[in-house]
Amino acid sequence: MKFDTPAGINPIDRLKVVGQPLDRVDGPLKVTGTAPYASDWHDPQANLAYGFIVGAGIGKGRVVAIDLIAANAAPGVVAIVTHENAGTLGKGEFYVQRFLAAPEIDHYHQAVAVVVAETFEQARAAAALVKVKYARVEGSFDLSALVATAPVAEAGQFGGKPETSVGDFEAAFAAAPVKVDETYTTPDQAHAMMEPHATIASWDGDRLTCHTAIQQMNWGVRDLAKTLGITKDKIRLVSPYIGGGFGGKGTVQTDLALAAVAARVARRPVKLALQRPMMFNATIHRPATVQRIWIGATMDGRITAIGHDNLNGNLAGGRTEPSTAATRSFYAGANRMTRQRLAVLDLAEGNAMRAPGEAPGLMALEIAMDEMAEKLGMDPVAFRVLNDTQVDPEHPEMPFSTRPFVECLRTGAGRFGWDRRKAAPASVRDGRWLVGMGMAGAIRAAKIAKSGARVRLDARGVVTVETDMTDIGTGSYTIVAQTAAEMMGVGIERVIARLGDSDFPESPGSGGQQGAPSVTAGVYAACVKLREAVAQRLGFNSADAIFSDGEVRLGNRAVPLGDAARAGDIVVEDTMEFGDLSKRFAQQTFGAHFAEVGVDADTGEIRVRRMLAVCAAGRILNPKTARSQVIGGMVMGVGAALMEEMAVDTKRGFFVNHDLAGYEVPVHADIPHLDAIFVDEVDPTMSPIKAKGVGELGLVGVAPAVANAIYNATGVRVRDYPITLDKLLDRMPDAA
């Protein structure tokens, strides 16, 4: 099916099932521990062996020699994989990291060897006996040392244009009567998902099956084929449940590639789960940034010039962290400039982490907007309302498909009690606490991509949906089932959703906030074809037939849906493909975040007291699961604001706090009640479902809202995340 004109009225608009706050269909499996995650897969007949990775002990250099004598003699050892027996390993299309030192070492904890043994404990013990001799060379590990010299990034497939220019930014900024020109930094951050990267790989002749944790099956098959040098049709990936991804399991990582290699060398199935330090130093992460923001405005608050320079580091050939993305689209202003610069660093690869670009970009931009509002003597909400735009500011001929940003701002201000905020910093005390309010805008691209599904109707009237879409805890199973139920006129209990198998029709998977709108569009297309097949079997005109309450109706005739399949199951498959609407309309999601914090006047301890998110993301397919996504993003945003930072040893080249003991993330005691509400809107330019993704919108804007609240509470402006008490103490107000 081709979608190339805005959607009109269709069966989804009945909203009997879609749009309802239904419980997760996979919930019982998860709370009873019976949902099979990657490392849970078990077959007593599989003769399973276990792998354990030996990671490089230096940050840059090469392997001179590996002594495997003691390790090979250890109990239970089946095989040991190194660059000498692994065969040639390529790279995929999205990540640039190499999975095995060969023998050059690109970064700390790059795999040097994989020990395979009969048990995990034997593999781990033998791995400790592997002796590696290194030749260390000087590496580049300090981003701050490269601020002045890093070049503009080369154009790539992802991240947008490295440089943009509209009007005469420099002249307009110089002439602006009110200016902000500040630099902001964000640190390296880890995905820190609960489930480790894990794979069980098994070869049957030249065919490879992997039970793994991966978000995008199509990319995974493609990239694993390129890594191993085999064809895609020889690979099957199975990933029905994923215990958190946040972009860190987007495509092939070390566990998947090396489990496949280890199984080939050992000639038996191998289970390989990454130990926690390997997840920090040998998989991808969100890279640190140094961002300079310029804003020029008239005395009455209208932006005349806005500029954004972003620097991040990466392995040679790696991608940028596109932190200028939000600045390009968010606020009005005739004169504009953005620039992305990229330095080469010998640290683990920087790549996609929840809302790449917008998340760190808004951490800078939305503080700068707050600083400008203060200089103008304007309320921060009113300043943003004044600079709203209904057309893409880089392409004024292109309107936004929908843009209820002002509604988000005003709804949030009213709901949060923003009118009670004191504009003067350090004006409100509650006992020993200095109390402040802050807010920030949120924008995240509304992406959608080609997506397919297979649907089956049986004589019981049960509809089964198959698609390779994954569920990373976001509710994919539920919205897939809701879409099919709405289209076929049955209750959700009559739908079986089967996901996460590369043998199923291809979807774009879970990533880039495109999963929900894409996969439901694919299910819609397949169900349209199924409705036609059912109507034909029953002798109905498919254009006029009504599918409702488990029946097919036309006029005074009503037939149970399952009757159409009495002669045999009806199975159809289709794919939703998209035309040029994304080129005719600027498609984005919008939101507003509000936060209240307390800062201890004596110690500088920061406590978030309450938070609100108002989100506009097209039709909300399931308010319950969508709210879950938003409040999860809000928790992640608190972490980004106040605690998350991978500390870099700039001499030896590794992330020091590489586990969940040293890398701090929010816990229950850090998080108050969170409120999330949705603006009532649909976007007919997206798909027949009229929905957009929301999972990343709940994150972007949170950290700067907290940062702005801290400033309002204390009068101390911190531009370097995370905002820890040591950055406040020596600048706290005298009254404290």
Describe this structure in words.
The chain contains 16 helices and 32 strands. The strands form 8 sheets. It has a 7-stranded mixed beta sheet, sandwiched between helices. A 5-stranded mixed beta sheet has the order 1-27-21-22-23, with helices on one face. Strands 8-16-15-14-9 form a 5-stranded mixed beta sheet, with helices on both faces. The mean pLDDT is 97. The longest helix is centred in the C-terminal third of the chain and has 24 residues, at 515-538. With 736 residues, the chain is an alpha+beta fold. Helix content is 24%, strand content 26%.
Q: What structural category characterises the helix and strand content?
A: alpha+beta
Distance from first to last alpha carbon: 65 Å
User: What quaternary form is this?
Assistant: single chain
Helix amount: 10-25%
State the total count of DSSP E strands: 32
Largest sheet: 7 strands, mixed
**How do the strands of the widest beta sheet line up side by side?**
4-6-2-13-10-11-12
Mean pLDDT: 97
Unreliable spans: none
Radius of gyration: 27 Å
Number of helices: 16
What is the overall silhouette?
globular
- Beta-strand percentage range: 25-35%
SSE arrangement:
Layout: E1 2-3, H1 27-31, E2 49-55, E3 61-67, H2 69-73, E4 77-81, E5 104-105, E6 111-117, H3 120-127, E7 131-136, E8 163-166, H4 169-175, E9 178-186, E10 198-204, E11 207-212, H5 217-228, E12 235-238, H6 254-266, E13 270-273, H7 276-281, E14 289-297, E15 303-314, H8 325-329, E16 335-344, H9 358-376, H10 380-386, E17 391-392, E18 395-399, H11 405-416, E19 429-430, E20 433-445, E21 451-457, E22 463-466, H12 476-488, E23 495-498, H13 515-538, E24 546-548, E25 551-554, E26 557-560, E27 570-578, H14 581-584, E28 588-600, E29 606-616, H15 623-642, E30 648-649, E31 654-655, E32 674-678, H16 702-714
Helix pairs in contact: 9-16, 12-13, 15-16
